[in-house]
Structures are given as structure tokens and as C-alpha cells.
Write a structure and sequence with these properties.
Helices cover 45% and strands 15% of the residues. It is of the alpha+beta class. The chain folds into three domains: 2-233, Glutamine Phosphoribosylpyrophosphate, subunit 1, domain 1 (4-Layer Sandwich), CATH 3.60.20; 248-382 and 495-564, HUPs (Rossmann fold), CATH 3.40.50.620; 384-484, no CATH class. The radius of gyration is 24 Å and the shape is globular.
């Protein structure tokens, strides 16, 4: 796991190049504190710089540091972030007779890419990664991202330069160092307000892009100016299948193989163990493979409504792991707040960024790598919204005319109730949104999104942005059931742009690598045939629970799903109150299309409440803080 960046430019290399190099290494040092190196080549009219921050995991020697160059001719040059889990297979397939000088996965990948096309190599590769590859002979550069977007890659370009980086703020700083200004993207902010995250094709600032998962972006630098990159997929997007239903033992075997591969490394490896189905199954298989007790980590809260640490302790005792349990309170939240703001320069509206950072900080004291259960909820109908969606859909089918009348009556009542001072209107907005919905995508947005439509200055513009989101989502699951359609949307958006962003930024803030066995290609292929009939039996993640029976007692995992939340409302009323209040009252909310009076009402609502949840307020505070810091 590392931090990568690259800078190609047509202008002569002046003092700005040195300043950018220093900035890149400093801003990404947390992603790779053990080696900081750069490489420069002048190729015709183009100067190329590659930068790398290394966290050593496979082959700890300096020989495996980057940027890395191919063979004696050194025509290919790479900066790589991530892990190739089946590097021996890749080596045998593409470069079986070639002598290597390191035991690193980076060298295997680089030499394979020198011998075959990028698409050919990656189609047979299992791993998580983002990398930049320069081909000096062909005068081109490719930047590449893994199947599900586990590793980040941001970029910007103009006619005179191309710049890419693992981190959003690094790209922002490069743009300013190159004499340009950052312009807020208002449509993207409305997407953030609707979803709680910035989608892949979106960005807080204009002119900054994220490379989509399974994509290759290529620039040819022979000409005097850079064009827009050509972007192609190296693998098809994940889609549900109506084929043969999954056999339970097949998933057990696939997951066991994935975990066995992901336990390989030259550093200590552990597991995140929340006590839920996904992390318990990963921990169980990892402990079965490990010859000694594996380190497991859980986090609880002093607020019992969010605390499931007792279940993690039960699971660890059953499995025999070496368990480390931590507690987080409002003082811990305040102490880690600066790191949260620094680690998420493009804001994420998910308050669980706090516990994610906290447990990563504590786990790093014992291990360098942890395995997680990420991806299981999306692949195996783990979210309550799937079953709720079925219930809402059933209501609509039973009697559409009655439902319409029901919506009108209840919506009218809600509008009246919302005016009562002691009833929190923000709690009613999601239900009102559903009652106003007209189709399944409206229903889905009502279940996962944020219905504070009254928070925006330009109502019509906001509605247009939401319509654009729905249009893009309408392309998913055309021939599938509604719940399978929701899975495809979740995997392409929520998983990529919320869950994996949160895990990567939080863990890499403390130089901790996370690996997600459920995102292994063998597991994800099996998940395509997962049967949504299980939901009709009100059995979420049925297949995972069946496999878990082999490892732990049923009472450990047969309980309602809690999720990995945080009592952000409590914290904003206590330890974080002064910080939040200053932003609420001093930030120019109109500059980002948000009504100041709405924010003030939301603030007072939270201050006069005992509700521990204040997600939308956190979203607004995170947005304002990012803009203040980056602009």
C-alpha cells in the first residue's frame, strides 16, 4: 500500500517542479512513510515525473522501492499502489523464464506489462491497485484502477500538463502551484447533498476527475499539447445473473482461497472483527488458516445505542483470536477530528469516518495489514433497505390507487406535524420523500439518500441533478429483479464512493493496509447468482449465515444488523460543539448553494435534541470545512 503521483508537462522544468515534488511527498507521506522517491525523464517535448511513497509489505528491502523500471532497456516505468495477490500465477503466465531481482509483486506486474498488453495482464490478475505506467518508446502513459475501486486515483489535465495522485488534496495543491484556481462544482455539491458522497464521475472542484474502477486512461505525449485521455474498461462492470444458483460450499471455498492469498505478506496481519456476520466469517476463516492466534480488533462506544463490541468479544472467544477491544467517547472524537478533516479533503458525509480512523490508529500499533468484511453487504443483500424495498414494492403492487390516496393523506399530516417545534422535522423528511416518490429509483433514493430538499438555494437545479442521477441508475439491472437492480447500483456507487473511500482514507491515514476478501473476483462472480428469494423469507445474507454455522454458535450472529455508525449528534452537542458552531455561523453557505437559515435551524434542532444521529448536519460541516481548507 502506497501513495503514487505523476506529473507530465510541456513547459521547461523550473523551480515549480521542485516545489511540486516536495509537496507530493509531504502530502502523501502517511500512505507510505518508509520510502520517498522520485524519477524524472525528458522525452521529446515532455518532461515526466513519477513520485512514490512506499509502505513496505512484500519484499521489505530497498530494492523493491519505486518508481521501478523494466529490465536493462528500462522502457517501462511504474508507480504502483496496492497488492497483487496471485503474483506467482501472473509471473508464470507472462514472464516464466525471466529473472527477477526482487520478491515484490510490483516487479512481477511491471515485467508482465512489458511483455503483454495491460488488459491481457489485468484480466488474469487478482488484487487491488492503482498505478501509473510510462512507456518511453511509445511515448504514452497509462493510469489504471482495480475492478471495484479499492484504491483511489485522482487526476487533472490541461493542454500543457497532466497530473495524477492517490489523494484529492494533492491534486488540488498541484493545480494551485501551477497558477490555477479551484472552482467549486455546484452540481457535484448537490449530488453530495442527495447521496452523502461524491460519485466517481463527480468532484468538489471542476477539472478534477476520478478514474472509474476497471478503467485505463491513456495519454500520448508525442504532440505539443495534451488531449483528453482515452478511457477504456479492462473488465466489464459487475452485473447480477439469472443463472444457476450459488452452492454454499462454493462460496466457502472461494472465500477461503481469497483469505489464504490475502494473509500473505512480510509484515504482521490482523482482522477487523465487529461481531457482525461478515467480519466474523472472515475472522473465522483467517484464524483457521493461521497457525497462531490472529490479531483481531473491535471498537465500541460509550453510547450503548451504537456499541456492538460485546458481540465482537463473544466471537473472538469462540474463534480463539488475540483480541483488542477499544472504546471511543466524545473526547476521542474531538481529538481525532483534525485527522478526519485532513484525511477526507473531498468530504464524505458518513459519520463512521470517526470510528474508522480511530480503530485504524489503534490497530496500526500491532499490525500493518488488516482484513475486512467490506463488500458482503452489497453482494449478499446485507442492507435492511433491500427487504424494506420489497415491502414497499409489495404495497404498491397490491393497490396502487389506495397507495396514492394513502400518500396524499399521510404527506399532508407530515407537513402539519413538521411545523410542531418539539418534533424533529429532519426525522420525517425521509418518509416524506418516499411518500412523494413515483418509481423504484425514487423509492431507492428515499431509502438511502437525504431528503433535505429545503436546504438548497436553487430547488430546480437540485431536482435536475437528482434526475441525472436517476437517469444514470436506470441503466442498471434492466433484465433483473428490483432488488438485484439495487445491488448493481450499490456496488457501482455506494460501495465504490462511500464504503471503500472511507476504509482507504481512514486506514492509510495511519499507514495501515486493508484488504477485502469479499471483493475477490472468485467471490464476486459467485455473488452474481445470489438469490433474492432469501429476502422474501426476511433472511439477509442467508448464504453467509449458513457458512458461519461451521465456525461459531448461531446466537453470535443471529441478531439485528447494527451497522458501523457513530453518535455524531451527541458529539456535536458536547466536545465538538465549539468547532461546529463556528462553522455554522461564519461559513458563507450561499456560496455553495445552501440556505443559511436551514443550517441554523438544523443546528438548533440538534442542540435541543437528545437524538444521537445528526448525519445531515455532519455532511454540511464536513463540506464547509473542506472548502475552507482547500480554497
Amino acid at each position: 500500500m502506497c501513495g503514487i503521483a505523476g506529473f507530465l508537462h510541456k513547459d521547461s522544468c523550473n523551480e515549480t517542479c521542485a516545489v511540486i515534488e516536495e509537496m507530493v511527498h509531504e502530502s502523501q507521506s502517511c500512505r507510505g512513510p518508509e520510502s520517498s522517491k522520485s524519477w524524472t525523464e525528458i522525452n521529446g517535448s515532455t518532461t515526466i515525473h513519477l513520485y512514490h511513497q512506499r509502505l513496505r509489505i512484500q519484499d521489505l528491502s530497498p530494492n523493491a522501492d519505486q518508481p521501478m523500471h523494466s529490465g536493462q532497456s528500462a522502457t517501462h516505468h511504474i508507480v504502483f499502489n496496492g497488492e497483487i495477490y496471485n503474483k506467482d500465477f501472473v509471473r508464470e503466465t507472462f514472464i516464466s523464464h525471466q529473472k527477477l531481482i526482487t520478491n515484490s509483486d510490483t516487479e512481477v506486474l511491471l515485467q508482465a506489462l512489458s511483455a503483454a498488453t495491460t488488459k491481457e495482464v489485468l484480466s488474469l490478475t487478482r488484487g487491488m491497485f492503482a498505478f501509473g505506467l510510462v512507456n518511453s518508446d511509445k511515448k504514452e502513459i497509462e493510469i489504471v484502477r482495480d475492478r471495484f475501486g479499492e484504491k483511489p486515483l485522482h487526476y487533472t489535465f490541461s493542454k500543457k500538463y497532466v497530473f495524477f495522485s492517490s489523494q484529492f488534496d494533492t491534486v488540488c495543491m498541484a493545480i494551485k502551484l501551477l497558477g490555477n484556481t479551484l472552482e467549486i462544482n455546484q452540481d457535484s455539491i448537490y449530488e453530495y447533498l442527495a447521496l452523502g458522497y461524491f460519485p466517481t464521475r463527480s468532484s468538489l472542484f471542476k477539472g478534477i476527475y476520478k478514474l472509474p474502477p476497471s478503467s485505463i486512461a491513456k495519454w500520448n505525449f508525442q504532440s505539443q499539447e495534451f488531449d483528453s485521455p482515452s478511457i477504456q474498461l479492462w473488465d466489464e462492470p459487475w452485473k447480477a445473473s439469472n443463472g444457476k444458483k450459488m452452492e454454499f460450499f462454493s462460496l466457502d471455498d472461494a472465500l477461503s482461497s481469497a483469505i489464504s492469498e490475502q494473509l500473505i505478506g512480510d509484515v504482521p496481519i490482523g482482522v477487523f472483527l465487529s461481531g457482525g456476520c461478515d467480519s466474523t466469517l472472515v475472522s473465522a476463516i483467517a484464524q483457521k488458516i493461521n497457525s497462531t492466534p490472529i490479531h483481531s480488533f473491535s471498537l465500541g462506544f460509550t453510547n450503548q445505542d451504537f456499541d456492538e463490541s460485546k458481540y465482537a468479544l463473544q466471537a473472538s472467544k469462540e474463534l480463539g483470536t488475540s483480541h483488542h477491544a477499544f472504546k471511543m467517547d466524545e473526547i476521542d472524537a474531538l481529538e481525532i477530528l483534525p485527522q478526519v478533516l485532513k484525511s477526507f479533503p473531498e468530504p464524505l458525509g458518513d459519520p463512521s469516518v470517526f470510528p474508522s480512523l480511530f480503530i485504524s490508529k489503534e490497530a496500526r500499533k500491532f499490525v500493518t495489514v488488516v482484513l475486512t468484511g467490506d463488500g458482503a453487504d452489497e453482494f449478499f443483500f446485507g442492507y435492511g433497505r433491500y427487504s424494506r424495498f420489497q415491502q414497499l414494492e409489495k404495497l404498491a403492487v397490491q393497490n396502487e390507487g389506495y397507495r396514492t390516496l394513502f400518500q396524499i393523506v399521510v404527506a399532508s399530516v407530515l407537513r402539519f406535524v413538521a411545523r410542531i417545534p418539539f418534533i424533529k422535522s429532519s426525522k420525517l423528511s425521509r418518509l416524506r420523500s418516499y411518500l412523494d416518490s413515483k418509481d423504484e429509483l425514487d423509492n431507492y433514493l428515499a431509502l438511502i439518500g437525504f431528503a433535505h430538499i429545503n436546504s438548497v438555494e436553487d430547488y430546480a437545479a437540485f431536482i435536475d441533478v437528482v434526475a441525472k442521477i436517476k437517469t444514470e441508475w436506470s441503466e442498471f439491472g434492466v433484465s433483473q429483479s428490483s432488488t438485484n437492480k439495487l445491488r448493481e447500483i450499490d456496488i457501482s456507487s455506494y460501495l465504490v464512493d462511500d464504503i471503500l473511500v472511507k476504509v482507504d482514507r481512514a486506514s492509510m491515514a495511519f499507514s495501515l493496509e486493508t484488504r477485502a476478501p469479499f471483493l475477490d473476483i472468485r467471490v464476486s462472480e459467485l455473488a452474481k447468482t445470489a438469490d433474492d428469494d432469501w429476502l422474501k423469507k426476511k433472511e439477509q445474507k442467508h448464504v453467509i449465515k449458513v457458512i458461519l454455522e461451521k465456525y461459531v454458535r448461531r446466537e453470535i450472529y443471529t441478531r439485528p444488523k447494527m451497522g458501523f455508525g457513530a453518535p455524531i449528534g451527541d458529539w456535536l452537542r458536547t466536545s465538538m460543539r465549539n468547532w461546529a458552531q463556528k462553522i455554522v455561523f461564519e461559513f458563507e453557505w450561499k456560496s455553495v448553494g445552501i440556505r443559511r437559515d436551514f443550517v441554523l435551524d438544523l443546528w438548533h434542532e440538534n442542540q435541543n435534541s437528545s437524538d444521537p444521529s445528526a448525519t445531515y448536519l455532519w455532511m454540511l460541516l464536513a463540506l464547509a470545512s473542506s472548502i475552507q481548507r482547500l480554497k
